[in-house]
Design a protein that fits this description.
Layout (H helix, E strand, L loop, with lengths): L3 E5 L10 H10 L3 E4 L14 H16 L4 E6 L1 H10 L9 E5 L7 H15 L6 H11 L18 H8 L4 H7 L4 E6 L8 H7 L4 E5 L6 H4 L1 H27 L2
Helix pairs in contact: 3-7
């Protein structure tokens, strides 16, 4: 059976942030689905709730699992949600998880400061879009620069989503995960704050730090991130072969 990929985007952006990865996977003949979370992308008019966000992930995973083992991939908010989902009390049909740019517990003074900054930027003329565009021009290669904005920015959803994320019990969830797990961070990612804690909670997980890269690792170093996808796919394929061999033994 062919490994199936489910991709979950970060806050403000949408499924379009994965265009480079989707193109790579299509060329490799690997089936992939990128979802839009509530309040984002094609679902911009919906309210964001944790229940609906996790339901969106669950529906995509369970559909993909009917065709093969699932490699779940999340970035930033999507990474936090996929960790919470995979480590939930009821184990979902996930064969492996890549959690990018999300090794930080969304709570306390760090989250409060982030929300204050986000609100301040939102009060700027054009809601800070000029600043966002200048940052992307300075850090993201031209080939992927437009991917984050292509589905629109969920500016009205951001604060609600951040408030909801604070209710996640990520420490418990991460400690429960028993499938192959990769944490992927940019060297200069601000969400590396609790990286050591996440490693302690999931001692079998692999940490991959991409040099000279910020929070937007999927777009800033798309070829490196695609190599991590290849690693995840190869690991799951090897596990499937091993399980089948074990099943054949008397």
């Amino acid at each position: 059976m062919t490994v199936q990929i489910v991709l979950v985007h970060g806050i403000r952006t949408s499924a379009t942030m994965w265009r480079s990865q989707l193109a790579f996977l299509q060329e490799a003949g690997i089936p992939a689905t990128a979802v839009d979370l509530p309040g984002h992308g094609t679902r911009m008019q919906e309210d964001f709730t944790l229940h609906e966000a996790l339901h969106t992930i669950d529906a995509a995973v369970r559909d993909a699992a009917t065709r093969g083992p699932v490699l779940l991939v999340g970035h930033s908010m999507g990474g936090l949600l996929t960790l919470a989902y995979t480590g939930g009390a009821q184990r979902p049909p996930v064969a492996g998880l890549i959690a990018a740019s999300c090794t930080s517990l969304p709570r306390g003074t760090g989250l409060a400061a982030y929300r204050v900054i986000a609100r301040a930027v939102d009060r700027l003329p054009d809601r800070g879009m000029w600043l966002t565009e200048r940052i992307l021009e300075a850090t993201i290669p031209e080939e992927t620069r437009s991917d984050f904005a292509a589905g629109g920015y969920a500016l009205d959803t951001q604060d609600t989503a951040l408030r909801n994320l604070a209710t996640l019990d990520l420490a418990t969830a991460v400690a429960r995960i028993d499938v192959p797990l990769w944490f992927v961070n940019g060297q200069y990612d601000q969400l590396r704050l609790n990286e050591a804690l996440f490693q302690r909670l999931a001692p079998r997980a692999e940490l991959i730090v991409v040099p000279r890269t910020t929070h937007l690792v999927t777009a800033m170093r798309p070829h490196v991130f695609n190599a991590v996808l290849r690693l995840g796919i190869a690991t799951i394929e090897a596990d499937v072969v091993s399980e089948r061999a074990d099943a054949r033994e008397p």
